[in-house]
Structures are given as C-alpha cells and as structure tokens.
Amino acid sequence: MKENTNKNYTTAELKMELEAAGVRATAQRVAILKFMRENPVHPTADVVYEALSDTIGSLSLTTVYNTLKLFVEHGLVLMLTIDDTFRCFDGNVAMHAHFMCRSCKKIFDMPVPDEVRVFAGNMDGFTADDVQLYVKGVCKECNKKIS
Ligand code: ZN
Ligand code: MN
C-alpha cells in the first residue's frame, strides 16, 4: 500500500494503478484518483466534483460519485460511513483509524492500536479484509474553544 505523503502522482503511475486494480483507465478516472491520492482529506463526492469540475468540463456529480464507488469496489479508495448524514471517501487505503469531531465535523486520521491489528489477523478461521475503527468526540482545537 502506498503511503500518503505530499507526493505528486504522474498520469502513468495512476494508469498503472487503475489497471492493476482491474479498472479501465479513462482520463476522468485518472483525474479523480489523482485528486484522491494527493488530497487525503476525506472529501465527499461534492468536494471532489467542485475541485475538478473547472478543469474537466464534461464532469458530472453523478460520474464522480459512481467513479468513487467503483474505486471502493476495487480497493482503490475507502468509503467512510463514520457519520450517517454524509458519506466521504479516503484516498489513503493503508490501515488507519478515524476520529470525527462532533463540533467541527472534521475527520482526523489516527493510528490503529496494535491490539486491533493482532485481533484482525487472528480470528480463528475468519479472514478480515476491511477493519474500520471510528472514534467520535471533540478535537483538540474545539476543546480549546470550549475551555
Ligand atoms: Zn473540532
Ligand atoms: Mn483517513
């Protein structure tokens, strides 16, 4: 799994990644995957659409949403259902936990405790391929404002 740094992804790299996952590489898919890989900020489909609609004139919100769902099916991005009022996506598919602030609604990446990794890898004949750990509360910044 690729680490999410501030790296820029080339079209060739993204095409290879799509094809390796069994997804036909179209210009729109390459652009959406590039945005997801370079912006690990848990965007909703609307945010991705807003960011790309200026550069890709023919893009529609439906296309963005369907593409993200296709990527989820092929393991290229994660769908987060941490809040049932919105659905967001994560271009970082390495195992990590999420914290959602109830006050500002921001979603933060958190490390997964070793115990959870051990648990997921040792389930007596069951095989885990997706582990989501959602934590909710109040973030550091919002706690400062409250106190
Ligand atoms: Zn907050
Ligand atoms: Mn994340």
Care to describe what's here?
This protein has a three-stranded mixed beta sheet with strand order 4-3-5, with no helix packed on it. It has a two-stranded antiparallel ribbon with strand order 1-2. The chain is globular. With 147 residues, it is of the alpha+beta class. A hairpin with a 2-residue loop joins strand 1 and strand 2. The longest helix has 13 residues, at 61-73. It starts with 10 loop residues before the first helix and ends with a helix. The chain folds into two domains: 11-90, Arc Repressor Mutant, subunit A (Orthogonal Bundle), CATH 1.10.10; 97-146, 2-Layer Sandwich (Dna Ligase, domain 1), CATH 3.30.1490. The mean pLDDT is 91. 39% of the residues lie in helices and 16% in strands. The protein has helices at 11-20, 27-38, 45-52, 61-73, 114-121, 140-146; strands at residues 78-83, 86-90, 97-101, 107-110, 134-137. Bound molecules: zinc ion and manganese (II) ion (MN). The site of manganese (II) ion (MN) has 6 residues, from loops. Residues 42, 90, 92, 96, 98, 109 line the site of manganese (II) ion.
- The overall strand count is 5
The CATH topology of the largest domain corresponds to Arc Repressor Mutant, subunit A
How much strand? 15-25%
Terminus-to-terminus distance: 40 Å
Which structural category do the helix and sheet elements fall into? alpha+beta
Bound molecules: zinc ion, manganese (II) ion
Largest sheet: 3 strands, mixed
SSE blueprint and pairings:
Elements: H1 11-20, H2 27-38, H3 45-52, H4 61-73, E1 78-83, E2 86-90, E3 97-101, E4 107-110, H5 114-121, E5 134-137, H6 140-146
Parallel strand pairs: 3-5
Antiparallel strand pairs: 1-2, 3-4
Manganese (II) ion (MN) is lined by residues 42, 90, 92, 96, 98, 109.
